[in-house]
Amino acid sequence: MWGKRDDMVVHDKEPFNAEPPPAALAGQALTPVDAFYSRNHGPFPDLDPATWRLRVDGLVDQELDLSLSDLQRRFETRTEVVTLECAGNRRAELLAVRPIPGQVPWGPTTISTAEWTGVSLADLLVAARPVPGAAHVAFTAPDVSPSVDPPQPYGSSIPLPKACSGEVLLAWGMNGAPLPRIHGGPVRVVVPGFIGARSVKWVQHVTVASEPSDSYFQAEDYRLLPPDAEPGPGRGISLGPLTMTSAILSPDHGDRLPAGPTDVIGYAFAPEGRRIARVDVSLDGGQTWTQAVVDDPPSPWAWQLWHLVLDLPAGPVEITARAWDDSGATQPEFPASLWNPAGYANNSWPRIRVDAA
Ligand code: MTE
Fold first, then answer.
1. Going by DSSP bridges, is the β-strand pair 351-356/256-257 parallel, antiparallel, or unpaired?
2. Which of 38, 159, 207, 254 could staple 138 via S-S, CB 3.0–4.6 A?
3. Pocket-testing residue among 199, 206, 216, ligand 1, by greatest number of atoms within 8 A of Cβ
4. How far apart are CA 332 and CA 10, in angstroms?
5. How far apart are CA 33 and CA 4, in angstroms?
């Protein structure tokens, strides 16, 4: 479906929400497009690259109205390897703590890494010249989410300093090919280090403003609420930068496998200029740990893969991991301490149970 692998875990067909089986990500720094997770709030728009236009307006001196070839000719092309992660990645573990009605029960693979080609949003903003009072940059797309009352197009925003930082892309290429429609073609925003919700697909409008976007997806959704709070506009912590996380990709939860030396493979991700410095793996719930080999990230904006060989004893066994970043921060032990009503930002220790014989 939609050019994805047959074994994708499809949570919803419409809007299409799917993540790859963990083994499809194991050991691969770049995620093939057919395995890249897909998160949508409405049906995909079908935009013709030949007639697509991007408008840049709001608190700027010079409004812009650009075709795809204007974008490609007028600004320097950049290619960056960036990991995208949905704020709902690993929600299933929060759901096991307490129900979260109406939200997709994502496993640990709502995260993927691609090489994106496009132009720097910062270069467009230099041409548009934000005026005093400008503090946020909002993105709007034409896909309408029927689940929001009243239904509304997808939108989001990021703070102006992030928008001007150079790494935020307006991308038309993914892994060396034109950006597929399912991932936002002809052009999407890629915001490295921020929750995937800010990387607006099918972008048509960039607005420089004094306040964050008033889109439902910025003002009400993608916010971290206290456990017993009701959602509402402006309530809770608006999620921007991602939290450090890690997961075990192989073996998979529930696998039956031979006892003895076993490759254990996973990813860890430290966004916003930090690096994963160490990954510990335990077979006894965290009483003793063995350090994994942690690969260099393929770019400052990407995850790091890790691996080690562990001697699995016969019988049921839990494999646990925890990552540390280069500031000395690590992951919280249990999802219960992180539970929140919409089920975001679960970065607790990953745990899988396997049966070795
Ligand atoms: N952009 C539009 N226009 N519509 C959407 O539904 N979903 C967002 C973001 N951009 C979305 C969007 C969310 S929540 C995520 S996690 C990423 O796109 C997912 O990008 P992908 O489907 O290319 O993996």
1. parallel
2. 207
3. 199
4. 29
5. 8
User: What pTM was computed for the model?
Assistant: 0.98
* Ligand 1 centroid from CA 4, angstroms: 16
**CATH code for the domain defined by 245-356:** 2.60.40.650
CA-closest residue to ligand 1 atom 10? 200
β-strands 136-145, 152-159: how paired?
antiparallel
Q: Domains of the chain: which residue ranges?
A: 9-238, 245-356
User: Nearest residue CA, atom 21 of ligand 1?
Assistant: 38
**What tokens appear for 263 in the block?**
């490759």
Answer yes or no: is the C-beta of 205 below 6 A from any ligand 1 atom: no
Q: Does domain 9-238 have CATH number 3.90.420.10?
A: yes
* 288 Cα to the center of ligand 1, angstroms: 39
Q: What is the pLDDT of residues 178-232, one digit of tens each?
A: 999 999 999 999 999 999 999 999 999 999 999 999 999 999 999 999 999 988 8
CA atoms within 13 A on the CB side of 176: 3
State the DSSP string of 257-315.
Answer: E-SEEEEEEEEEE--TT--EEEEEEESSTTSS-EEPEEPPPSSTTS-EEEEEEEEEPSE
Dump pLDDT digits (tens) for 268-303: 999 888 999 999 999 999 999 999 999 999 999 999
Backbone angles phi, psi at 280, to 5 degrees: -105, 145
> Does any ligand 1 atom lie closer than 6 A to the CB of residue 115?
no
Kindly give the number of the ligand 1 atom that is closest to the alpha carbon of 112.
24
State the amino acid at position 146 in one-letter form: P
- Asked if 217 and 231 touch (Cβ cutoff 8 Å), the reply is no
Calculate how far, in angstroms, residue 153's C-alpha sits from the geometric centre of ligand 1.
12
Q: Is the CB of 199 under 6 A from ligand 1?
A: yes
Output the CA 306–ligand 1 centroid distance in Å.
27
Q: What share of the chain is helix, strand, coil (3-state, %, to 5)?
A: 15, 40, 50
